[in-house]
Amino acid sequence: MNIPKELKYEKTDEWVKVEDKTGTVGISDYAQEQLSDIVYVDITLSVGDKVKKGVVIASIESVKAAADVNMPVSGTVLEVNTGLSDTPEQVNTDPYGSAWMVKIQLDNPQELSTLMDGAAYEKYCAERVH
Amino acid sequence: MFTPHTKTEISTMLKVVGVNRLEELFQVVPESCRYPKLNLPAGLSEMETRQELQLLSESNETAHDLACFLGAGAYNHYSPAGVDAIIRRGEFLTAYTPYQPEISQGTLQAIFEYQSLIANLTGMEVCNASHYDGATACAEAAVMAYHTFRGKRSKIVLSPAIHPHYRETIRTYMQGYTNLTITGDEPGIDLQQHPSALKTLIDDNTSLVYIQYPDFFGRIFDLKEIVEVAHTAGAMVAVAVNPISLGLLIPPGEFGADIVTGEGQPLGLPLSFGGPYLGIFATKKEYIHKIAGRLVGETVDKDGKRAYVLTLTAREQHIRRERATSNICTNQGLMALASTVYLSLLGKSGLKQVATLSYQKAHYAFERIIQIPGYQAWNSDPFFNEFVIKCPKPVDEINFHLLDHGILGGYDLGLVYPKLKGHMLLACTEVNTRQEIGGLVNVLTEVTHE
């Protein structure tokens, strides 16, 4: 399982990559593996939306399940990866790269402290495997 | 198979619950109601029961015994004997949607063919495995449009000429939606207006504009303008159809409908006192993840052979739970099969012939009736197989006389549109003969003299 150390993780398996005051959000390798083959991604945000932590920002369907993606930190949407709906399989092949979902301006950077770092998330995932 | 609990199981359960006897569980029911004397007659033998039921059933008068001019959403078309013979085969005869679908390849193939036929007929890209009836399919369209905009567009515009039951069903389905306005069909509205008149209600808060075609009064309007206005405002357009009419009319897919729904009963299903019927639901491919109900897709198995599967099931409520946009996880299996067999037996030319005959007979009846002194046409718009007549006497009185002569008269529009008291909605199909229409005209004439 691939868990990049430099990212921050939410308990519901979203990651945030922080660069200055902007954050990029996606779902983790663990999450895509649990869902199996992903066939549909519907990001429900538009540029300019102000989104609070915990709000549903996307729906994902795989061949066997459906899941929601939650906002891990509050922010204002700068960019949406609209192309992902045409190539949902990228969530399986490149969850931390081309399958990013939204870029946001962090509205409340202190919230980052509620998230796990790579090591804590790795432990969290390992506990759930059994 | 029903397996009753054994005495041991019952006593174990009672022990767990903490009571001694089963009867103790019923103590909350007042004693006089617990085992009331029902005062029923003595039991009958099977032979006697059958005789009694036979007598009872003979007091019914069905569309087969009468000359039927009643429509208003369900139509007395002829269903070829092959339809019933095929759907009664043991391999097919179940009303259930397949719950272990992939071992039911024949059922899945039939549903796939149903979907393909309906998509073709309506001019749409995708069709689901069906809903309960025209009314519930109609409500699912409204629910889907609302969720497509994620509740951000809170207005639904309904034509007042949509079947009153369909409009009622939309309101029933959506009664829990607090942020919703359903407008366009208020009681004061002018019923003779062209559907384009609804355009004044359409704005950027409108999720859906719903029109019936032919409408509840049988009228056919050009819907291009209203579709264009709706689309310019970013709203979706749903069109409720009578599928038989599409043997003649331009399919809604060709003039831009986003959703087509319909009552599938005319496609070879018996009237059967109101059901089971068939809910048609078709839409564009871009909405495939928003559709309610089941979808069958074609694929290949591991040996490369053609196979059928239930597809995109992650949309459905048993997976998506409270975030599903609809709670429908079933379809009207046997009726969908019947309509598939019907359409296959008729073919393109047969369907066109049924539609043409229904159209021509209705126009013949209309021309004859408006020549009877006292009877007037309500409107002058083009119509399919149904039309509205202003009558010189109360509609129920006229229908009473007609029934006396073995004729099932038209629908009393005053029952659902107070403004249309004294107006009758009459329908014809290929089944109505010239003699039947002559008989109808004679009795309608007689009634005015009484």
Question: Would you kindly provide a written description of the structure presented here, covering whatever features stand out?
Answer:
The complex is a heterodimer of chains A (130) and B (450). Helices cover 18% and strands 35% of the residues of chain A. Chain A is an alpha+beta fold and 130 residues long. Chain A has helices spanning 29-35, 90-93, 118-129; strands at residues 8-9, 14-19, 22-27, 38-43, 50-51, 56-62, 66-70, 75-80, 102-106. Chain A has one domain: OB fold (Dihydrolipoamide Acetyltransferase, E2P), CATH 2.40.50. Chain A is built from three helices and nine strands. The longest helix of chain A has 12 residues, at 118-129. Chain B is α/β, with parallel strands linked by helices. Helices cover 34% and strands 14% of the residues of chain B. In chain B, the strands form four sheets. Chain B has a seven-stranded mixed beta sheet with strand order 2-8-7-6-5-3-4, with helices on both faces. In chain B, strands 11-12-15-14 form a four-stranded antiparallel beta sheet, with helices on one face. Chain B starts with 6 loop residues before the first helix and ends with a helix. In chain B, 42% of the residues are buried. The model of chain B has no long low-confidence stretch (mean pLDDT 94). The chains are: A alpha+beta (130), B alpha/beta (450). Chain A binds chain B through residues 39-40, 42, 44, 59, 61-66, 68, and chain B through 150, 289, 312, 314-315, 319-320, 323.
